[in-house]
Design brief:
By secondary structure, this protein is α+β, with helices and mostly antiparallel strands. Helices cover 35% and strands 25% of the residues. The relative contact order is 0.13.
């Protein structure tokens, strides 16, 4: 009898542990994450879209896309997307998976010479989880790709290499979200950011701003003026960079709405002033007003006075 009680007790403890573990995993998977809190502070731009296909189709009709598509990072992205789409399961192509959801794209400068993107993609349904699982299985089976998984600070990272193009990307899953980039350095930076805890949004100043709820708005565009000079430095001569950095210090950040009208692009929104000492904004800070005593000496027939003080 005592042996049977001990056996039942051990079985109960094991069963309770399994239930608790399963519940914890389920609760973690249900936890909603603000993707803005995962974006590193080094991002020069962050673009949030909720209609990927429509934005891409409209951009492809503009002259801006002709210039943007010539960038190596854009060409690599298009080539990888085409290869991934070729192994996507059934008729559920990547465009369908990416469409009609809020996706973040952060733009970073690495090593003062390269532009890299990070994509933050929510997985919102059981069907999408099934699609991703089948896609990863097809990648493993495809001779066009090689896949290797590794652990980094408690996160399982997967490196996928396109053997035909010689390009690669790294991704990991975090609370029903996929974080993906061609730069493993940026992915690892995001993992370190998560492990530090107490995540704060890079766009915390604009928490209540969402232009996507308005008609004809294609994206929210966050501008980090403190990182913007590094991006502009890729296109501007070095001797002009001191002026670029100084002018960029007029604002700290901005949240803009993106609208497209045929071949025109419109950005409109709000900016916050830079508060650092020595910035352009600090130089323009209003000083204490002083009376214009020269008025006492002016003739009564003075029609106009120009004063530079």
């Amino acid at each position: 009898m005592p042996q049977r009680i001990v056996f039942y007790f051990i079985a109960f403890v094991v069963l309770a542990s399994l239930v608790y573990y399963g519940f914890s995993r389920w609760q973690d998977s249900r936890l909603k994450v603000d993707l803005w809190t995962l974006v590193p502070e080094t991002a020069a731009f962050v673009v949030e879209t909720n209609n990927h296909s429509e934005l891409r189709e409209h951009l492809e009709e503009t002259a801006l896309w002709e210039s943007f598509s010539l960038l190596p990072v854009t060409q690599r992205f298009q080539e990888n997307m085409a290869m991934l789409d070729s192994v996507a399961p059934g008729n559920q192509r990547l465009d369908r998976f990416l469409d009609k959801k809020n996706i973040l794209t952060s733009i970073h400068v690495l090593g003062k010479t390269d532009v890299e993107f990070v994509y933050y993609i929510p997985v919102v349904s059981v069907g999408e989880h099934r699609f991703l699982r089948t896609l990863t299985e097809n990648i493993v089976k495809s001779p066009a790709f090689t896949e290797q998984s590794r652990e980094y600070q408690g996160m399982l990272l997967t490196d996928v290499t396109n053997t035909q193009l010689g390009t690669s990307f790294t991704y990991f899953s975090y609370h029903n979200n996929i974080i993906l980039s061609a730069s493993p350095v940026l992915v690892e930076e995001i993992v370190r950011r998560i492990n530090r805890g107490k995540l704060t949004s890079i766009a915390a100043d604009y928490k209540k701003v969402n232009y996507l709820s308005q008609a004809d708005v294609y994206a929210n565009v966050f501008v980090n003026y403190r990182a913007l000079p590094d991006l502009l430095g890729l296109f501007v001569q070095e001797d002009l960079m001191p002026q670029v950095r100084y002018l960029s210090s007029f604002c700290r950040n901005a949240m803009l709405e993106l609208k497209l009208d045929r071949n025109k692009l419109f950005l409109n929104g709000f900016s916050n002033p830079e508060t650092l000492e020595g910035s352009f904004q600090a130089q323009l800070h209003p000083s204490k007003p002083r009376p214009l005593e020269i008025k006492l000496l002016l003739p009564t027939r003075t029609a106009m006075l120009m004063h530079f003080g």
